[in-house]
Design brief:
heterodimer; A: alpha+beta; Alpha-Beta Plaits; 2 domains; 32% strand; elongated; B: Rossmann fold; Transcription Regulator spoIIAA; 4-stranded parallel β-sheet; 34% helix
């Protein structure tokens, strides 16, 4: 089997489809591309493909990662072109690399894509509906707090999460036209993380960030492990 | 252009229903075309996107250079509430244009219980609900699909209907429109309707006067414009290989009801089940050729990326070259992991063998439709299936490893007695015991699904009075109490909905007022059990002074004029009467595709013939 890693986008056109739907869309794209894809065994064969960290509904991304396997080694440009041509609106292929499996003598295999993820960088934009100074202060106060709790309610359970443990860097604030631009560098661990939308909610509710929350847009800019983009880990 | 804010899309269930941009969707420059056609289904995105007819017409219309065709479906209740609250009008999924800016809004009429949703969509679009209230600037409202063989209950909401198969006529409509528009729209709205009424298969309800007799029953419908015909016959495609079929289906980003390729093998079914409206309205059998189907299958897999293909038709196992076609498809898609399925199985071992071959290892469950519990009643409905056929078929299935069988029945058929109801339970139990006999142990599930019979126009049972709701419910209880075997599971339809469907499907033009009233009072998504508001509908009939039971339960007289006879699929009234008499006499009628012509009248009146690739030269039936 020949494994490849793709860096893909999730554009504005499809920001409202779920992670599972995104995987289904990619599966059909690979089939349309007529690549010699490898399938799982069993009664209900599926393409051998795996994804990095799932994206929340409504979030776009420049850093979606997918590993997939082919039964024949094709050259990178051929796969890149065929797959690119088969993608639907809203998904672009940015980079593609073969995953070099370590030789048996070198010991362990490549980690699963999902397990490599350690860090996500997000950009959040929202219309400013008040003073710029107030916005800056709100972010400063958030950054200065030693402990911040987020009360996460899901259909299954409710729990409090300490947010600051996941902040790799302080939240940065900037302006783009009348929109506030926040950059969040978040740690993603095996045991948990915090979502950019949740940080935004805290900034709005607890720190008085003066933005139109309902019009906020979130984009994942990078997904990293060991301080590098996931595409550079192969 | 309608732009939905993130906070709206974040607040609704399945927001991708409203965001478009799917692969293979066609985007044209609005100003570059003369004809703007919105194709609609008055149901959710997932249901609408699964409809084969809409997929075909979408491509046919978009293949015209002068026409842009876009899609629109009914917003779910959560989205509707937001749209009404913020005055967001109904919009299309390609260019996000307001629906009222389109020249045409075409609804596929799949079943009666979506009529309230049609009114709701018109209202959301800001288009006047009643035809009479529309002016020259308004969108033309068009209907087509299975329920067009009685359009009277919705006649006052539609500018015109297209009867029968739409591939050719929809293009003629667009062409007529473009010509009329380029000529400066002579005669205004009515001028166009006069032009379009000249096309075969087009019914313009406002061009007719309807009369009722002293008892209040429908007595006549007469043309009041020279362009209006006395009788409108459905359109039919003579050679299915010659018309466009779906080649590049719009690919949804989210799961839809039929999330797979639909390859339509043929149209029509002449087995002649007497309750079946599809059986009379899609006549005669016309098969696509094996070569064309192979070619289509390849195009569809390549353009969609789907790995599942359903070989669809009214009775797919009747496709004359099915064995060979399946072999072809298996060979063509070897190594591509494409799986094939048959949506409807015949009750015989050929079907079981084929299903076994197609499913390979996965044994999901088999579905058969004996329709009635006793041989006597199966003869009444001309379901040419015996208990022995069923037992042979399930025996073969159990030997092949199937453990789940679903059996479809109907309740409330003409001449039905309690014995026939109990017979359903007995038959299901025999099937369950057959499993024990074959396998030497229990472990089968036999699910019986029983619907409430709704008599439909243009069928031999069109005169028959439907059972009252209470009687349906009594028979449901009787059946439930008659089941003694634990392996048999019983599902039944909501009789409240069936009797309403019974009243509307044989309604006349006065039912429009009831539908309007029910919609005004909050009826919508009536086909969704949890949203069905029985009280609202009963109240609507009461407010309009119309007795629902006169429509559902009254047995019509043979000589009585019926409100749907002027819009016909071509089956003659004599044929229907003959079939009724044979039903009561428990006599069978042969399938005409290979056997004797039953004289239904379709072939001669529509100048069409059976296309059956295996029908031998010498066996060509004598035309009556």
């Amino acid at each position: 089997m020949y494994k490849y890693r793709a860096q893909l986008t999730k554009g504005d056109e499809i920001r409202y489809i779920s992670h599972l739907d995104y995987a289904g869309v990619m599966e059909r794209a690979i089939r349309r591309a007529k690549l010699p894809a490898a399938y799982t065994e069993g009664f209900n064969p599926h393409l051998k493909m795996s994804f990095a960290s799932p994206l929340s509904l409504g979030v776009t991304s420049d850093a979606e990662y997918m590993d997939f396997e082919l039964t024949k080694p094709l050259c990178q440009p051929e796969i890149f072109d065929k797959l690119s041509a088969a993608l639907p609106p809203g998904i672009r292929l940015i980079k593609l690399k073969p995953v070099k499996e370590p030789k048996p003598c070198e010991g362990k295999k490549h980690k699963a894509l999902m397990a490599e993820v350690e860090q996500g960088i997000y950009e959040v934009v929202a219309p400013l509906i008040g003073d710029w100074d107030v916005a800056v202060k709100a972010v400063e106060r958030y950054n200065a707090a030693s402990e911040v709790n987020y009360h996460r309610v899901t259909p299954k359970k409710t729990r409090d999460i300490e947010v600051k443990q996941y902040m790799i860097e302080p939240v940065k604030i900037g302006m783009s036209g009348d929109w506030v631009k926040l950059t969040m560098n978040i740690s993603i661990t095996q045991t948990g993380s915090i979502k950019p939308a949740e940080i935004l909610e805290l900034l709005y509710n607890e720190y008085g960030l003066p933005v139109a929350l309902g019009r906020a847009l979130i984009n994942r800019c990078k997904l990293m492990g060991q301080g590098k983009d996931l595409i550079d880990l192969v | 252009m309608i732009k939905l804010e993130p906070e709206i899309l974040q607040a609704v269930e399945k927001p991708a229903r409203y965001t478009g941009h799917e692969l293979n969707a066609v985007h044209k420059d609005w100003d570059e075309v003369d004809c703007h056609f919105a194709l609609a289904m008055a149901d959710t995105y997932e249901v609408g996107m699964s409809n084969l007819g809409l997929k075909i017409l979408y491509e046919v219309l978009n293949n015209r250079q002068d026409t842009a065709c876009e899609r629109v479906y009914a917003p779910w209740t959560d989205m509707e509430a937001i749209m009404r609250d913020r005055s967001i009008p109904l919009f299309s999924l390609e260019s996000f244009t307001e629906i009222k800016n389109f020249d045409f809004l075409g609804f596929t009429l799949q079943y009666e219980m979506i009529y309230s949703n049609i009114l709701n969509m018109l209202d959301l679009a800001g288009i006047p609900i009643w035809t009479k209230d529309r002016n020259d600037e308004d969108t033309f409202i068009v209907g087509g699909g299975p329920t067009v063989y009685n359009t009277e209950p919705i006649a006052d909401f539609f500018d015109f209907f297209i009867l029968g198969e739409g591939e050719e006529v929809i293009s003629e409509v667009a062409k007529t429109f473009v010509k009329w528009k380029r000529e400066g729209k002579p005669g205004g709205r009515k001028g166009f309707l006069k032009e379009v009424a000249k096309l075969e298969g087009i019914y313009v309800p406002s061009f007719y006067n309807v009369k009722y007799n002293e008892k209040g029953y429908f007595s006549s419908i007469e043309p009041k414009e020279p362009e209006a015909r006395d009788k409108i016959y459905k359109r039919v495609i003579r050679d299915l290989d010659s018309v466009h079929f779906v080649e590049k289906p719009v690919m949804p980003y989210i799961g839809i009801v039929h999330d797979r390729i639909m390859l339509e093998l043929f149209r029509g079914c002449t087995r002649g089940c007497r309750f079946c409206q599809a059986g009379t309205s899609y006549r005669p059998i016309r098969e696509r050729s094996r070569e064309y189907l192979r070619e289509l299958a390849r195009k569809l897999v390549d353009s969609s990326g789907y790995n599942e293909m359903s070989l669809t038709s009214l009775s797919s196992a009747d496709y004359s070259c099915l064995g060979e076609l399946v072999d072809d498809l298996f060979a063509d898609f070897e190594g591509e992991k494409v799986s094939f399925s048959l949506p409807s199985l015949r009750i015989d071992s050929f079907s079981i063998d084929l299903a076994h071959k197609m499913q390979q290892v996965r044994k999901s469950g088999l579905t058969f439709a004996p329709e009635a519990g006793t041989q006597r009643l199966r003869d009444v409905i001309n379901k040419g299936v015996t208990e022995e056929n069923l037992m042979t078929a399930v025996e073969a299935a159990f030997k092949q490893g199937w453990k789940q069988v679903k059996l479809y029945f109907m309740m409330g058929l003409p001449t039905e007695t309690d014995e026939d109801i109990v017979g359903i339970a007995r038959l299901a139990e025999k099937v369950a015991r057959k499993y024990k006999e074959v396998k030497g142990k229990w472990g089968v599930t036999v699910t019986i699904s029983v619907s409430c019979f709704v008599p439909k126009p243009h069928t031999p049972f069109q005169w028959f009075g439907q059972l009252p709701k209470d009687e349906f419910e009594r028979r449901q209880r009787l059946l439930k109490d008659s089941i003694t075997e634990r392996a048999v599971k019983f599902h039944y339809h909501d009789a409240r909905v069936s009797v309403l469907e019974g009243a509307i499907s044989r309604g006349d033009r006065r039912i429009s007022q009831v539908i309007y009233q029910a919609w005004k009072d909050g009826a919508k998504f009536d086909g969704w059990t949890d949203l069905f508001k029985e009280d609202v509908w009963h109240e609507a009939f009461r407010k309009c002074g119309i007795d629902m039971k006169e429509y559902s339960e009254r047995t019509r007289d043979f000589d009585e004029p019926l409100p749907w006879e002027h819009t016909t699929p071509g089956v003659s009234k004599d044929f229907l009467k003959r079939e009724w008499n044979k039903a009561v006499a428990e006599q069978l009628t042969e399938d005409c595709r290979r056997g004797k012509c039953s004289g239904c009248g379709v072939c001669p009146s529509l100048k069409v013939d059976i296309v059956d690739w295996k029908r031998k030269e010498g066996e060509v039936k004598a035309n009556v």
